[in-house]
Amino acid sequence: MNTTLKIGLFGFGCVGQGLYDIIEKTHFKAELVKICVKNKSKERSIPMKYFTFDKEELLQDEEINVIVELIDNAKEAYEIVKTALLNGKHVVTANKKMVAENLAEFIELQQESGKSLLYEASACGSIPIIRNLAEYYDNEMLHAVSGIFNGSSNYILTKVIQEKMTYEDALKQAQGLGFAETDPTLDVGGFDPKYKLCIIAAHAYGAVIPPEDVFNYGIQNLSEHDIEFATEKGYKLKLLANVAKIDAQSITLFVMPYFVPEGHYLYHVENEYNGVIVEAAFSDKQVFVGKGAGGHPTGSAVLSDISALRYDYKYEYRKAASGESLQYTKDVKIEIYFRYYEAEDLAKFEFEDISIQYSGKNYNYVIGVISLAQLFEKREILNNRPIFIVNTGRKIENN
Hints:
Elements: E1 6-10, H1 14-26, E2 31-36, E3 51-52, H2 56-59, E4 66-69, H3 74-86, E5 90-93, H4 96-113, E6 117-118, H5 121-124, H6 129-136, E7 142-148, H7 151-161, H8 167-176, H9 185-188, H10 191-205, E8 215-216, H11 224-233, E9 235-245, E10 250-261, E11 273-280, E12 284-291, H12 295-308, H13 318-321, E13 327-328, E14 333-340, H14 343-347, E15 353-359, E16 364-371, H15 372-377, H16 379-384, E17 388-391
Parallel strand pairs: 1-2, 1-4, 2-3, 4-5, 5-6, 8-10, 10-13
Antiparallel strand pairs: 7-9, 7-11, 9-10, 11-12, 14-16, 14-17, 15-16
C-alpha cells in the first residue's frame, strides 16, 4: 500500500490490548483511528477518545483502510469482515471459527474486491505457519501437517499430568490467565484446533473443507485411569490436529488425543505452547514451536499481517487455484485406546481388530483398529458417555 495504514480495530480484549501494546512499544508506523467495543461500562486501559460503540464509524469511514477484527463472536465477525471487504478495506482477523466456516466465500470476495484478508493469528498463535505454507511450501509435496494447535488444552494437560493438578483446577487456572474462555468447550472439546486445521489444510493442500465434516474429539472425558496408563507406558497425552496425504488423490484430517512417546518432537512442548510438524517430500520434517495463547504472542501475529499489507501482500491460494487440490476422505483406519466402564458402550463400536483387551475392577480398555468414518458417525456417543479415546500413533495401512 502506498498510503499510510489507518486502522479500525474491533475488540479490545486480551489480543486487542496485546496488539495495542505491541504497536506502542515498537512504534509501528500506522495510525489506530478508532476501536469499536460493546461494553459501555467496562473500564479501559487507554483514553476513551479511542473508542466507539458504533461499528459503522469504522466500516463506513473512508479514511480507515485496514480493519482488524479481534472479537469472539464468529457470526458478528463474519458480517464485519464481509462488509469491510465489500467497502474496499483490507482485513486482518484472528477468528479461526469464522475464517474456517466461510473460507470458500472469502476467497471469492478477495478476488472480487481486490483486497486482502489475512489471518495468520487464527492458526497457531505466534507461529507463522500459514505464511510458510503459502510461500515456502507452495511447490512442495507435503506428506502431513500435524501438531499441538491449542495452547489452552495443552496448558491443562501439562498441569494435570506433570503437576498432578485436578482437571477442574487446571481449567480454572487457564481461564484466569486468559488462555481459556469462560465456556471452554471450544478449546477442550477440540473445536478450536479443528478450525485451525481446516485453514491449514486449505493452504497445505488446496482443499477447502467445511469444519462440520471433520472429526474432532477433545480432552473433557479424561480420567486418572487414562493418565495412569499413559504414564506407565512412558507416554504423554497431547491433543493433536493432523492432516495427511493418504494417496495421490486424497487427504484425511482429524483432531484427537494422542499418546506421544519420549523422543517425539512434541513430547516436551508444554503449557500454552503450540508445536507444528511439517512433513515434506524434499525438505523432510520441520518443526515450529511457539506460544499459542496470550495477548502478546497472538498480537504479534496480527501485527505481522498488518505489516505485510504495507507491501500489498495477499494469499494467492496457489494449490487451490491450480485445480489439483486433493479430495477429503474419512475412509481411513486408525488404532485407538478405548477406555470405558460399561460393556454396552464397547458394543456400540465395531473394531476391525483388537490387539489388547483389559478388564479391571475400576475401568476397562481395548486397543484396536477402527475406521475414522465410524468415529465420526458416533461422535455424540463418544462425547456423552464416560468413554475416552486416544490415538496410539501407530501407522495403519489404508488399502
